[in-house]
Design goal:
single chain; 10-stranded mixed sheet; alpha/beta; globular; BirA Bifunctional Protein, domain 2; 3-stranded mixed sheet
């Protein structure tokens, strides 16, 4: 079964004794289509009928509501389409210029050093992956206890979010994943309280003066993946944060 045909990349990348498929969509993928594709692939992975998958996409401008979304955090309901995501977390924005990596890995087979059936460790590795990608472009992204995502210090006590995470796990197979801001329209974040966190801003590589394309970021994602998921760095997960952005079912 072909789960995604409109791709510019469809390669199997070996990691230890298994292979993970990488796919990159060459168009803006409608959100409902993305969810249906992920759910089909997760079922196939669980059944042993398909390999694990990293799927890199961009979406048309839209908001998604995670399982912890609070209605009052949708500040401008008519600004963009809103979709219930099924993932953990609250409201977030997706749109062109944002690299979304949907990560479908089987946590029952920890050949990648994924920490086995440890969703918190998986979330920590998604954070670590974005941190290492940002470092490739000279940016220091950091975690913050009690705050979802990865953050950039802007001085004078200001911190802006550059990457978001939301995860769902079914039969111990992960899906959804991360969203890293390369050069999206940051004005659209005004329609929500991003991830339920007020008092902090949102930024992107472009807003920080980094002249990187989506394809540059894709290369950095590939280059750093094994460093995080195959080399098994020590996982220092924040159980409370992981619980807030991960959904089971």
């Amino acid at each position: 079964m072909d789960y995604q045909t409109d791709t510019i990349s469809n390669t199997l990348v070996a990691s230890r004794d298994d292979a993970i498929e990488w796919r990159t969509a060459d168009r803006l993928v409608p959100y409902e289509e993305a969810v249906a594709t992920m759910e089909a692939r997760v079922a196939a992975i669980h059944a042993g009928a398909a390999s694990e998958l990293i799927w890199l996409v961009e979406h048309p401008p839209l908001y998604t509501a995670g399982t912890s979304a609070v209605a009052s955090d949708l500040l401008e309901p008519s600004r963009l389409p809103v979709f219930k995501a099924g993932r953990g977390g609250q409201y977030t924005y997706h749109g062109p210029g944002q690299r979304v990596a949907y990560v479908m890995l089987d946590l029952t087979r920890p050949k990648l050093g994924q920490g086995g059936r440890d969703v918190g460790c998986h979330v920590w590795r998604l954070e670590e992956w974005m941190i290492r990608v940002c470092a490739r472009f000279g940016m220091t992204a950091e975690r913050r206890e009690g705050r979802v995502g990865v953050w950039i210090r802007r001085g004078a006590g200001r911190e802006d979010k550059i990457g978001a995470i939301g995860v769902r796990v079914r039969h111990w197979v992960t899906y959804h994943g991360l969203a890293l801001n390369v050069d999206p329209d940051l004005a659209n974040y005004a329609g929500i309280v991003p991830c339920g966190i007020s008092g902090h801003g949102v930024t992107s590589l472009a807003a920080l003066g980094v002249k990187a394309t989506i394809h540059d970021v894709d290369s950095a994602l590939r280059d750093t993946f094994d460093d995080v998921f195959a080399s098994a760095p020590e996982c220092r997960a924040d159980p409370a944060s992981a619980k807030s952005i991960a959904s089971r079912g």
